[in-house]
Amino acid sequence: MKKIFLSLVAAAMLVFPALVQAAPVKIGFINSITGKEAQIGENLTNGALMALEDLRAKHIEVELIKEDDGGDPKNALAAYEKLVTRDGVIGVVGPYTSGCANVVASRADQYKVPLLVPAAAKEEITMKGYKFVFRLNAPANVYSKVLMDAVKLFKPKTIAYVYAATDFGVSTVKTAQENALKMGLKEVANEKYQQGQPDYRPSLSKVKAANPDLVFLVSYDADAILLMRQAREIGLTPKAFLGAGAGYTTAQFAQQTDISNLVVSATQWTDDVNWPGAANFGLRYKTKFAKDPSYHAACAYEAMRIMVETASKARSAVKLRSALKTGSWNGILGPVKFEDYGSFTNQNNHSMLVQQIQNGKYETVYPA
Amino acid sequence: MSFLQPLLSGILTGGVYALAGIGMSLVFGVMNISNFAHGDLMMLGMYMAYFAFTLLHIDPYLSLVLIIPTAFFFGFMLEKLFINRVIHHPHQNQILLTIGLGLIMSNTALLAFTSDPKILTTTYSSSAFNLPGDISISLPLLFSFLITCVIISILYLFLAKTSTGMALRATSQNREAAQLMGINVAKMSAIAFGIGTALAATAGALIAPTYYIHPLAGHSFLLKAFTICVLGGLGSVVGAGVGGIIIGVVEAMSSTYLSTDWKDVIVFVLFLAVLLLRPEGLFGKKGGRS
């Protein structure tokens, strides 16, 4: 009797393989939950959470193991090593900051577990030819490229740079300088600052004295508000402030209407772009978390969705790598394909958007 | 660009540094304890100003009337409950205790207030007035500086003229002798720590309208407060005041004429130079204390 029952079960397994699938795949998620970048980290967490909910609705189960790097590359690396060696995950989404992602990326090929970077901008991450590193968002050079394309119309002649002394700040400005050179812009000031200082007035006064047409800014969250306040205070009024992502794309920044109005910033995503599901994602996020999503949330959502959907079919790290390499997707971040182009490897050639803050609201202004 | 602009903005920022430094110096002078929780006490002051503004709608500068007594009481109790237990212990025990207290404060703040930086937006947060020669003075910084001057004057009068103030100075000069003269040194320690805490919280509240408020925001000021104390001479209130202004001006000058990247280098080179030439600090007493 028992034998008959067992063979019936075995037969059933053959007929309905989906129902008796083995345990859900394990995926790791490294994020800055604490530390300086925690505010943006929260956006990533929420985005990833929504992706998991949507996947569950489609009966795709996953065991997600979350790790906090506190914004510190050392912790990020330890988290990645723990995930792949102890937890046995077959794919990892994260980390958020450029510094963390860059360090983790350098080890991915060694452990042969695919890493999908959702929102880190440093170009180097996908420039070293790593086979197991994929990046969803556009790298640093696109930030400045799209911003300068948007203001080309106004024929600016001079540019000044004010940026945080972080991986993200330095690499974004380096590529901005290359783009500016191509446009024939003259660099009149270059101010790198240490994060978290109370007084940026001396740097900003120097920029003011140089009287640039454009001021190109790269900062993380709170510094963005501080810098713009002090810029207003000393009367720094260029033709345009160009904010490269991060601190200039948060809802908190937009709400400071007396300083944020008319600031132009580059972003990976907005909710009024016509990519499938973008508007709906923005709406659902707002109802669920009672605040506007930043582009980080959308990147984390899409990265998590792609990772889990692909991993649940591939079911092993090596197969996952080839599935990510050959697959293509279309979702709230537009068409996604991990390609080799220029000096990049496994890089999604994502087109960025330019938005302008008008009375506390972000409006997409480019591409028009 | 005018030479006066960085000088003025340095002096104004230095005023707030001075206030943080004085609190720490006073505690060191009277109790011979390096207070590593000083930055976190400053952070508590920032949050008090923030909540007074958002919940009670009190202007951050006006809220000092509430913050100073609250912080004094908090510091007084901290000393009574924890600090006085290690007052005769080796320095490393004292350092561990104050670091521990600081960690508890900052992590409780992280849990309670989350790590979202809070921004205190007043009507004058980014306003300034212009002097001839294209020099702009930040209005909130100027307010802070003036309040700092008033507080330092009151503190000076308190230390010089009142009997409690004199007892505090006596304890600072020689704890044992003061005790022999009938001064209640245990009470003086608690008062000194209370004043130190009140000064830290005031510095936090004064910087809140122009800075951002975050559970870990105190840490960058802790290092500054230490530098200021050692520069001015540990235990010297005047030294800490002057030290704060010096650091503010040097920072502003080096970021104007060199680069922002270099300002910490310049500050610490200056710091080392002072330590080499005058190990007791600019206003410190020769010989040090046992």
Mass-distribution shape of chain B: globular
CATH architecture of the largest domain in chain A: 3-Layer(aba) Sandwich
How far apart the termini of chain B lie comes to: 49 Å
- Described by its quaternary structure, the protein is heterodimer
What is the overall silhouette of chain A? elongated
Chains forming the largest contact: A-B, 37 and 40 residues
- Helix share of residues of chain A? 40-55%
The CA-CA distance between the termini of chain A, in Å, is 71 Å
Number of helices of chain B: 11
Q: State the helicity of chain B in percent bands.
A: 55-70%
Q: What is the total number of structural domains of chain A?
A: 2
Q: For the record, what CATH class of chain B applies?
A: Mainly Alpha
Number of DSSP helical runs of chain A: 13
Stretches of chain B where pLDDT is under 50 for at least 5 consecutive residues are none
Number of strands of chain A: 15
| SS-based class of chain A | alpha/beta
Low-confidence stretches of chain A: none
Q: Tell me the CATH topology of the largest domain in chain A.
A: Rossmann fold
Strands side by side in the biggest sheet of chain A: 7-6-8-9-10-14-15
Instruction: Note the beta-strand portion of chain B.
Output: under 5%
Roughly how many Å is the radius of gyration of chain B?
A: 19 Å
Brief description of this entry?
With 368 residues, chain A is of the alpha/beta class.
